[in-house]
Design goal:
single chain; about 400 residues; alpha/beta; TIM Barrel; 6-stranded parallel sheet; 3-stranded parallel sheet; 19 helices; 9 strands; about 55% helix; globular
C-alpha cells in the first residue's frame, strides 16, 4: 500500500519529465545570446573540441541541450582598438568551425535556411553584433556584417557610442550626459533605419532609457532585447522597467532572459564584489596579459567555483522574471538569451548549454501550456526574425 502511495505521489513528476522531453525535442529551441566566440579567442580554444570545465558551451553540448538555433555574440569591450576588425575575426572563427563540421553546424542568413538546417538536425548559427561600437561609425561596415550573417545589433554595449548612449553611462554619467547628448543622435536614427532596411533586428539590451525610447519611436520593425530581465525584481541598470517591457510588447518584439546571477538576484552584487576583492591580485595579473576584464573574472570564477556556487540564486528566481514579463507584455514577448560564456555566474542547475531541458520542464510545472513553452523556447524570437527580414 505504501509503495503504491509513493508511486502515485511521484507520478506527476514523472509525467512532467516525460512531457518536457517530448516538447523540448519537438520545439525549435533558440538562444539569442552566447559569447563562446569571444571566450574561445580569449582562452585559446575551439568550440568544436570538448570544453567541459573550460567554457559553458561547445558544439557537442549544444546538441546535448537540444539547442537548434544559436545566435552567437560578436563582441569586444569599448577599449579594444579597431573593434570592426575584431568583429570579423570572431566571425572568421565561427566560419572555420562550420567548415570543419558541415553536418553539425551551418551558418544561416534567413528563416527559410534556418528551418532547413533544423530539419537536418544540425545547429543553425547566426551572429548578433553586441555593441554599435563594432561598426566604427560606418554604415558600410554595418552592411558588410549583415552580408556575413549578422541578424541583430545591440545599439550599445556598456560603453556609449558617438551616436547612442548606454544604460551604464546614462546611469553613472548622468550629469555630464545632460550637458552633451543623451539617446540617439541623427546618425543613430540613420543606423536604426538602415538596420530596418537590411533586416537586422534592433537589440535594446544594454542601451540607456533615452536610447531605448528613441529607438522604439524610430524603428519600423519589431525589436529584441537579447539578454535582459525585469528591473522590478532586480533593480540594476541592465534590466527593463515596467513601461519598457510593455512598450516591447506593443512593438511586437521579444525580451530574452539573461542568466547572469547579478541580473536575476539583487543580493548577488555584494557577494560578487567580495569575491573580486578576495582575488584582486590574480585578476590584475590576468589583465596585465591583455585579457579583457570579463574573461579574467571568468577564469578566476572557474578556479574558485565553490565560492561562486554558494552565491548562485535558485533557478526559480530566473523564472520569476519570466512570469513577470509575461504578466506585463504577454507570453508572445519573452524568450531565452542566456549570455552563457559571457557571464561568471548563473542560477543553480543552469550550469551550461546542456541545461535548457530543465527550463522546459520548469515552465510546464509552472502551468505554461505546450504551445506557450514552444513560443518561449524559440518561437517568439523566430517570429521577430521573420518580421525583420526584407
Amino acid at each position: 500500500m505504501i509503495k503504491k502511495l509513493i508511486a502515485l505521489l511521484l507520478l506527476p513528476c514523472a509525467v512532467y519529465a516525460q512531457d518536457a522531453q517530448t516538447i523540448h525535442a519537438k520545439a525549435i529551441v533558440v538562444d539569442s545570446h552566447n559569447d563562446i566566440l569571444t571566450a574561445c579567442l580569449e582562452k585559446n580554444v575551439s568550440m568544436d573540441k570538448d570544453l567541459k570545465g573550460i567554457t559553458q558551451s561547445d558544439l557537442k553540448r549544444f546538441k546535448e541541450g537540444g539547442v537548434d538555433v544559436q545566435i552567437f555574440s560578436v563582441w569586444c569591450d569599448g577599449n579594444k582598438p579597431n573593434p570592426y576588425a575584431w568583429a570579423n575575426r570572431e566571425m572568421d572563427t565561427l566560419y572555420a568551425v562550420a567548415a570543419r563540421n558541415p553536418g553539425k553546424i551551418l551558418i544561416v542568413k534567413t528563416s527559410k535556411e534556418l528551418k532547413k538546417v533544423v530539419k537536418q538536425q544540425a545547429l543553425a548559427a547566426m551572429f548578433g553584433v553586441e555593441g554599435g561600437h563594432m561598426i566604427d561609425n560606418n554604415l558600410d561596415n554595418l552592411n558588410h556584417l549583415y552580408e556575413r550573417g549578422a541578424r541583430y545589433m545591440t545599439l550599445t554595449w556598456n560603453n556609449s557610442t558617438a551616436w547612442a548612449t548606454s544604460a551604464m553611462d546614462e546611469t553613472t554619467k548622468k550629469d555630464s550626459l545632460d550637458r552633451t547628448h543623451k539617446g540617439l543622435t541623427d546618425f543613430g536614427k540613420q543606423v536604426v533605419k538602415r538596420m530596418n532596411e537590411l533586416g537586422i533586428m534592433v537589440d535594446l539590451s544594454h542601451v540607456g532609457e533615452q536610447t531605448f525610447w528613441d529607438a522604439i519611436h524610430a524603428t519600423t520593425k519589431p525589436v529584441i532585447v537579447s539578454h535582459s530581465n525585469a528591473y522590478a525584481l532586480c533593480p540594476v541598470f541592465r534590466n527593463l522597467k515596467d513601461e519598457q517591457i510593455i512598450a516591447v510588447g506593443k512593438n511586437g518584439g521579444v525580451i530574452d532572459l539573461n542568466y547572469y546571477s547579478g541580473f536575476v538576484d539583487s543580493s548577488f552584487h555584494l557577494k560578487e564584489v567580495r569575491f573580486v576583492l578576495n582575488h584582486s591580485k590574480e585578476l590584475d595579473s590576468l589583465r596585465k596579459t591583455g585579457m579583457q576584464q570579463e574573461y579574467a573574472l571568468s577564469l578566476i570564477s572557474d578556479k574558485y567555483a565553490t565560492e561562486i556556487q554558494a552565491a548562485r540564486p535558485p533557478m526559480s528566481m530566473l523564472l520569476d522574471h519570466l512570469d513577470y514579463i509575461v504578466k506585463l507584455a504577454g507570453v508572445d514577448h519573452v524568450g531565452i538569451g542566456s549570455d552563457f560564456d559571457g557571464i561568471t555566474s548563473s542560477p543553480q542547475q543552469l550550469d551550461d548549454v546542456t541545461s535548457y531541458p530543465l527550463v522546459t520542464k520548469a515552465l510546464l510545472e509552472r502551468g505554461y501550456s505546450k504551445k506557450d513553452v514552444t513560443k518561449i523556447m524559440g518561437g517568439n524570437i523566430l517570429r521577430v526574425l521573420k518580421a525583420n527580414e526584407k
